[in-house]
């Protein structure tokens, strides 16, 4: 541990704004608090929610910590903690940011023990996205074999897991991506139909692919740009799952917009509400790891960068210049 102390630091947003507001702060070498576990990070996941914390879309006190998932090794254990061992490989996803750091003290209830088959970079790349997919598909939408789903940003970090997950349980997937190359990736992941048309043409294309009916469920992490197309792609009594704002927050919408499209259902879920207990988190993670170990899911890490280049990671993510996941290495 002493080898790390001089360089231990975390990254924060000194003010709300663009990637340039990300700055380093030293971490003091203090004893781990009672009820906490210190995790020495080996890999840190980058997610769109990190940009929301940086810009203030999801406001928090400044300087604002960043990052909500990481994988590493248990380095120290506070008083009163049981069931965790020094040197144990773990990963976590946290509702409160702070993972952009060389280490973090976390609640042991959010720790997930890593199987030998799951390496640190894979865990950091997949835990939040994978648990998000598990909760969206099963806990929220309760998808069943024979149903149809439209998946936006199908070649992105979440999309690359959601498409094959849905296919694995027998759902017919219509994928949408930002260009032809990304649509080809979605098709390779198992999507029955892969589109890259403008949003203004998307609903018509979806209806053409479903015999005019529309899909049972739309999974939309894009937000403002795709909002109208998503609603117009649903069958009557279909479910709109809006789970992200990659293009900006969705516009104010009257409930009558749902009525006139056939009594649609709308939800804005948060994964943490579906894994609110340690047992729920363990079950979701076990489901994810089983999918990985059976080869139903693949994890592509499209970009690896040193922790201190997190600003570049945000630029790449917001500029949609990557496919797959982004991992920071301390």
Automatic annotation (TrEMBL):
It comes from the Bacteria. Residues 17-328 form the Enoyl reductase (ER) domain. Gene3D superfamilies: Medium-chain alcohol dehydrogenases, catalytic domain, NAD(P)-binding Rossmann-like Domain. One of its GO terms (molecular function) is mRNA 3'-UTR AU-rich region binding. Keywords: NADP, Oxidoreductase. GO terms for cellular component: cytosol. PANTHER family: QUINONE OXIDOREDUCTASE PIG3-RELATED, QUINONE OXIDOREDUCTASE-RELATED. This is NADPH2:quinone reductase.
